[in-house]
Design a protein that fits this description.
Shape of chain B: elongated
CATH topology of the domain at 6-105 in chain B: Beta Polymerase, domain 2
CATH architecture of the domain at 6-105 in chain B: 2-Layer Sandwich
Shape of chain A: globular
Number of strands of chain A: 5
Strand content of chain A: 5-15%
Order of helices and strands of chain A: HEHEEHEHEH
Structural class of chain B: alpha/beta
CATH topology of chain A: Rossmann fold
Oligomer: heterodimer
CATH class of chain A: Alpha Beta
Largest sheet of chain A: 5 strands, parallel
Largest interface: A-B, 12 and 13 residues
CATH superfamily of the domain at 6-105 in chain B: NADH:ubiquinone oxidoreductase Nqo5 subunit
Number of domains of chain A: 1
Number of strands of chain B: 7
Strand content of chain B: 15-25%
Chain lengths: 154, 165
């Protein structure tokens, strides 16, 4: 009986926590380049990222759940990005916003990190140069899906 | 042939022996001068009332390695006069081995970061600059990336794959 109730409770609680987490994403926008304009367009009233429970940017990584890396990351910036990521509390997720953060984009040169997944783990890649707000929202929904279906640590 | 502009005429009068080349192709006054005359010419451009070049618009450099030009580098200055609404382009050659030209920070304080950028990207030193250090790249970076002999695939990451430490 105990086993059954425990098993029953664990599965339901995990689902409930996943549901709560995916609809209350505090983001840290790490904006370095032109993708920031598209990020702002997504956040503003027309596309309204708040509909997805992600309307609350925190400008301290310690209060954020998801790190939006928005724009080209140079080798000079890489240690800063890594430190910001390490300052975030678990559970935490990373979204690579735009093709520069995914692969370096067309900046295949001495200055640019060839994909931020070479320095920090990435959950969702949103391609585009820059991605349209619809693409961003699609990426956000994929992240929510991933959060809902992943194992919840608590 | 149209009449020579006042800028070229005045520079020719004052520094004729230091001019390597001068032209006004497409209406852009351009003067290539010997490096030792750089500061006197710049002082003249700024202080001569008829010229009054009070605005340093741009300061950059060119690496002519693949064009086999001698000397290899050229530092390029663009000046503008807000009062007279005229412009001039000044070029100074710099040799391949230990390239160095005089700093003009004392005349146009805005030259400070430009000269640091040219040092960072091309490795051209500026004699008399107050604090000549890299401005765009990090201090661990080796070499000067806009030189034509910088390996195009060379990466120097601080962290992650390929980092030294």
């Amino acid at each position: 009986m105990r086993m059954i109730s425990q098993g029953f409770l664990t599965s339901k609680l995990e689902k409930a926590i996943g549901w709560a987490r995916k609809y209350s994403l505090f983001q840290y926008p790490f904006v370095t380049a032109c993708c920031g304009m598209e990020y702002m367009a997504t956040a503003a009233s027309h596309y309204d990222i708040d509909r997805f429970g992600a309307g609350f940017p925190r400008f301290s990584p310690r209060q954020a759940d998801v790190l939006f890396v928005v724009g080209t990351i140079s080798h000079k910036m890489a240690p800063v990005l890594k430190m910001v990521y390490e300052q975030m509390c678990d559970p935490k997720w990373v979204v690579a916003f735009g093709v520069c953060t995914c692969t370096g984009g067309f900046y295949d040169n001495y200055a640019t990190v060839q994909g931020i997944d070479t320095i920090i783990p990435v959950d969702i890649y949103i391609p585009g140069c820059p991605p349209r707000p619809e693409t961003v929202l699609d990426g956000l929904m994929k992240l929510q899906d991933k959060i809902q279906h992943s194992r919840q640590e608590f | 042939m149209p009449e020579e502009s006042i800028t070229l005429r005045k520079i020719r009068e004052q520094f004729g022996q230091h001019i390597i080349e001068a032209h006004s192709r497409l209406g852009d006054d351009t003067v290539i001068i010997q490096p030792q005359a750089l500061v006197p010419v710049c002082t003249f451009l700024k202080q001569e009332p008829d010229l009054d070049f009070n605005f340093l618009m741009d300061l950059t450099a060119v690496d002519y390695l693949h064009l086999k030009k001698k000397p290899r580098f050229e530092v390029v200055y663009h000046f503008f006069s807000l009062a007279k609404k005229h412009r001039v382009r000044l070029k100074v050659p710099a040799e391949a081995r230990n390239p160095e030209v005089d700093s003009i920070v004392s005349l146009w304080p805005g030259a400070d970061w430009y000269e640091r950028e040219v040092w960072d990207m091309f490795g051209i030193k500026f004699r008399g600059h107050p604090d000549l250090k890299r401005i765009l790249m990090y201090k661990e970076f080796q070499g000067h990336p806009l030189r034509k002999d910088y390996p195009i695939q060379k990466r120097q990451p601080l962290i992650g794959p390929g980092a030294k430490s």
